[in-house]
């Protein structure tokens, strides 16, 4: 049994005052200025342990921007007691640095909520489906079941493995575990799981998932939108598979988000003390080009429901859409005037109107872009492809009145005379451009 303690009430010293620690056996907690526990350890002699701690250089780097403190809980010097307490506290608080290697140059602690949403965003791009939610999953915690498509021995398992392993490399409390892997002869598909706030998320491969896509709906998990099975589809599956109910005794369709999260606005972030909101990591900034230099990129053209979308790719494999393309789809103007049409101010206002702060602070720069394969040079502003999809999927800035209400609720019925803007909005609410890019690049 863990002792009932409040970490904030424990004695503590600043990291750089480690020589003032007492000579006692203890469990110690390293916390940042916001009270987040980032590392937990044990010591038979606390001050001696910290004279030459193996993580001191790593922690000293964090201390430059975010002052750290060492708190301690005095306890028995028995090695088994110390070890058991340390393990239990690590399980309880999941400190991110306990999951990282000492030699790894960790520059930033990623909040568990951010790591969760980033991994779910990657899964959603790969056509992962919310199969259902089982609040009474037998011996396991309440479980959200996600499934990704496979076709024979082909699928997106490799992309999923890469995405989740990249998430696991972050200094975060959230970790994905590959608890089962099919033999290479069967496709080497991976089965994954993670846990957040007592809810387990299970990710598994499914053959023939494409056959049940008719009539699917859209639902969110931790604020991330997915394709999801409806209640009637789950009922049909239960009727067709007698043993299904035994494996998933309480499975039900997801209606409300099982992991609801509230996203911060810029004004909320400025207050700095709102703990109920989640700060999303900003986009990795494009490196500014020196005066007179051009950004060399490749491009390809996708055709979605009769709408042509030009996608640009930089030398790091990141995808972008030129602002001209967005203007053409939304306003029918292929060549807006940067100053007269207030392009940068409009883009900033549109991004700030999105339901998350993900793109807060993104710098819209007019650049010279050279497409090497076409020997074409243009001046434009680059929007990350994810930003383009976010802008197109949230019609508040483009539609009004009854049309906005019908599109937002999913009740709008497509018409032959629909504009490019409506077509793209409806298509992106059910799909993503990323799988099309992978198909054309393969």
Brief summary of the model shown:
The protein has 14 helices and 19 strands. The chain has helices at residues 46-51, 56-63, 79-93, 112-125, 157-168, 231-240, 244-247, 266-271, 323-331, 343-352, 385-393, 401-409, 420-430, 434-441; strands spanning 12-14, 26-31, 37-43, 69-74, 129-134, 143-151, 154-155, 177-181, 190-196, 199-207, 217-221, 224-228, 262-263, 277-278, 295-304, 307-313, 319-322, 366-371, 376-384.
Q: Which characteristics define this entry?
A:
14 helices, 442 residues, 30% helix
Question: Any overview of this molecule?
Answer:
It is a single chain. Helix 4 packs antiparallel against helix 5. This protein starts with 11 loop residues before the first strand and ends with a helix. It is 30% helix and 25% strand. The strands form four sheets. Strands 5, 6, 7, 8, 9, 10, 11 and 12 form an eight-stranded mixed beta sheet that branches. Strands 15-16-17-19-18 form a five-stranded mixed barrel. The chain has a four-stranded antiparallel beta sheet with strand order 1-4-2-3. It has 442 residues and is an alpha+beta fold.
């Amino acid at each position: 049994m863990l002792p009932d303690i409040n970490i904030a009430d424990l004695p503590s010293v600043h990291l750089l005052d480690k020589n003032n620690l007492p000579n006692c056996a203890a469990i110690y907690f390293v916390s940042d200025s916001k009270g987040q526990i980032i590392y937990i350890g044990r010591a038979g002699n606390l001050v001696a342990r910290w004279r030459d701690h193996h993580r001191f250089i790593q922690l000293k780097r964090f201390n430059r921007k975010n002052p750290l403190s060492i708190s301690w809980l005095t306890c028995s010097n028995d090695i088994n007691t110390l070890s058991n307490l340390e393990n239990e506290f690590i399980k309880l608080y999941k400190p991110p640095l306990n999951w990282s290697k000492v030699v790894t140059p960790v520059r930033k602690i990623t909040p568990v909520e951010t790591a969760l949403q980033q991994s779910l965003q990657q899964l959603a791009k790969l056509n992962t489906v919310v199969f259902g939610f089982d609040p009474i999953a037998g011996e396991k915690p309440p479980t959200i079941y996600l499934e990704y498509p496979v076709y024979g021995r082909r699928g997106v398992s490799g992309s999923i493995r890469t995405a989740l392993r990249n998430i696991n490399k972050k200094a975060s409390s959230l970790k994905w575990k590959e608890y089962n892997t099919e033999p290479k002869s069967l496709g080497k598909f991976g089965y994954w799981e993670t846990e957040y706030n007592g809810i387990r998320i299970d990710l598994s491969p499914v053959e023939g998932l494409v056959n049940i896509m008719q009539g699917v709906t859209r639902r969110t998990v931790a604020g991330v939108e997915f394709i999801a099975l409806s209640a009637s589809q789950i009922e049909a599956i239960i009727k067709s598979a007698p043993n299904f109910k035994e494996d998933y005794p309480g499975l039900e369709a997801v209606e409300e988000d099982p992991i609801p999260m509230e996203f911060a606005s810029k004004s909320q972030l400025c207050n700095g003390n709102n703990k109920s909101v989640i700060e999303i990591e900003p986009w990795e900034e494009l490196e500014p080009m020196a005066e007179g230099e051009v950004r060399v990129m490749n491009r390809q053209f996708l055709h979605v429901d009769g709408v042509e979308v030009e996608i640009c790719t930089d030398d790091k494999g990141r995808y972008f859409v030129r602002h001209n393309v967005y203007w053409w789809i939304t306003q029918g103007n292929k060549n807006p005037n940067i100053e007269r049409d207030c392009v940068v101010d409009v883009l900033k206002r549109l991004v700030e109107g999105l339901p998350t702060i993900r793109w807060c602070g993104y710098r819209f720069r007019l650049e010279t872009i050279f497409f090497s394969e076409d020997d074409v040079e243009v001046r434009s502003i680059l929007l990350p492809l994810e930003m383009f999809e976010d802008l197109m999927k949230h019609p508040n800035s483009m539609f009004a009145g009854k049309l906005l209400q019908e599109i937002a609720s999913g009740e709008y019925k497509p018409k032959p005379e629909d504009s490019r803007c409506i077509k793209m909005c409806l298509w992106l609410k059910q799909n993503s451009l990323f799988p099309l890019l992978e198909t054309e690049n393969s």
